[in-house]
Amino acid sequence: MADKSKIGYEFPVCSIDVEKTKIADFAMAVAQKDVPEKINPIYTNEEAAKKAGYPGITIPPTFGTTFMFRTGGGLMGVVNALGINLGKLLHGEEEYEYFGDVCAGDVITGRIKVIDMYQKERKGKSGRFMEFTVLETEMRNQRGELVIRARSTMVER
Amino acid sequence: MKLNYDNINVGDEMPVYVSQPLTRTDLVKYAGASGDFNPLHHDNTFVKLLGMERVIAHGMLIMGIAGEAITAWIDNKNLRKFNVRFAGMTEPADFDDLENTTKRATITVTGKVVKKYEENGEKRIQCDITAQNGFDSTKLTGFFIAALPR
């Protein structure tokens, strides 16, 4: 069961380098393409990205998810710190708010915060509860500008 | 035609996007690309311990596919918010039974404009989206908000 005393818990501040190859791998994975030539060129080609109005090669809308898995000890680090049972973990909701461009070469810094934990009774099963944990991460670039706010709701069934 | 605020209306539909049938290879690629190595998405011996028959796709892969659908229509740069609620698990296709397993692993993303409004000095739209497999089983519902040029 999730440990409610963890509301307000903040993971250590972490930074990731936004790397070209990682962007291309991610963009190919969500587009289900084998080669970079087949995906939207704003994710692989600097000229195409600049033509589209970005300062450089940019990221797909859900790339922010990599921040969580590459900081805080990865998935297991987060799960263990929160006392969540991996075998019962489901992803309930995910939200991104976009405030500015993120491009290859940027350094993104942030910390994952536990902003809420609550229970909901399971439908049709009185006395049985699902546990919800809401994580929020504000990501800032090397100039200190807020670029993405991510919110993830984890569910323990 | 370039999308702009004035020629888009509440009720307009986003172009339908259909994924390739998801395979275990797609799941492994997404695991490597995202860093999400939850064994639920690649290790059959782990899922058996949970009483499940096979691995399932990352919810975030389905959201990524929905993001691909959205940015095929709206410039990525115009996105202001993207929110989804996960509604069901997605099993990949089995190569030894493609005939019966391709539909469950093929994701169709649809969307409809539900709101036009001004916020932060921008002309914005809200578009509700749904991702379903070939059996109309809903995988996620959600919405995005985009700022559009006039």
Brief overview, please?
The complex is a heterodimer of chains A (157) and B (150). Chain A is of the alpha+beta class and 157 residues long.
Write the layout of secondary structure elements.
The complex is a heterodimer of chains A (157) and B (150).
Chain A: E1 14-17, H1 20-31, H2 46-51, H3 65-69, H4 74-82, E2 89-98, E3 107-110, E4 112-122, E5 125-140, E6 146-156
Antiparallel strand pairs in A: 1-3, 2-6, 4-5, 5-6
Chain B: E1 13-18, H1 24-34, H2 44-49, H3 59-71, E2 79-86, H4 98-101, E3 108-119, E4 122-132, E5 138-147
Antiparallel strand pairs in B: 1-3, 2-5, 3-4, 4-5
List keywords for this structure.
heterodimer; A: alpha+beta; two-stranded antiparallel sheet; 6 strands; elongated; B: alpha+beta; Thiol Ester Dehydrase, Chain A; 31% strand
Can you characterise this structure?
The complex is a heterodimer of chains A (157) and B (150). Chain A is of the alpha+beta class and 157 residues long. Chain A is built from 4 helices and 6 strands. Chain A has a 4-stranded antiparallel beta sheet, with no helix packed on it. A two-stranded antiparallel sheet of chain A has the order 1-3. In chain A, strand 4 and strand 5 form a beta hairpin. Chain A is elongated, with a radius of gyration of 18 Å. Chain B is α+β, with helices and mostly antiparallel strands. Chain B has one domain: Thiol Ester Dehydrase, Chain A (Roll), CATH 3.10.129.10. Chain B has helices spanning 24-34, 44-49, 59-71, 98-101, and strands at residues 13-18, 79-86, 108-119, 122-132, 138-147. A 5-stranded antiparallel beta sheet of chain B has the order 1-3-4-5-2, covered by helices on one side. Chain B is elongated, with a radius of gyration of 17 Å. Chain B starts with 12 loop residues before the first strand and ends with a strand.
